Amino acid sequence: MIIPEWKQVLKHAWSVRLALLAGFFSGVEGVLPLFTDKFPRGIFALLSMFFGMGSAVARLILQKKMRNNGNDD
């Protein structure tokens, strides 16, 4: 079940932003080698891991806009 304030979470939650970046870099890691070999091996996997771990940490940090229901824009 989706939470009632899902739009607010998508707009303000750093955990969501970092998780999306992790997914992006994971996709790049799989596709980019098909087109070029100019990037060091594993760099995008490392970035994906970094942002994935960051999203887990960000999920635990209190975010002012989330606490105040985003009314302080």
Structure characterization notes:
The protein has four helices and no strands. The chain is 64% helix and 0% strand. The protein is elongated. The chain is mainly α. The protein has helices at 6-12, 14-31, 43-60, 64-67. The mean pLDDT is 85.
Features:
single chain, 73 residues, mainly alpha
Beta-strand residue percentage: under 5%
Distance between the termini: 27 Å
Whole-angstrom Rg: 16 Å
Total number of helices: 4
User: Which structural class matches the secondary elements?
Assistant: mainly alpha
- Averaged pLDDT, please? 85
Q: What composes the largest sheet?
A: none
SSE sequence, one letter per element:
HHHH
Q: How many DSSP-defined strands?
A: 0
Shape: elongated
Q: Which percent bin holds the helix content?
A: 55-70%
Task: State the gist of this model.
This protein has 73 residues and is mainly alpha-helical. 64% of the residues lie in helices and 0% in strands. The protein has 4 helices and no strands.
Please render the helix and strand layout as text.
Layout: H1 6-12, H2 14-31, H3 43-60, H4 64-67
Helix pairs in contact: 2-3
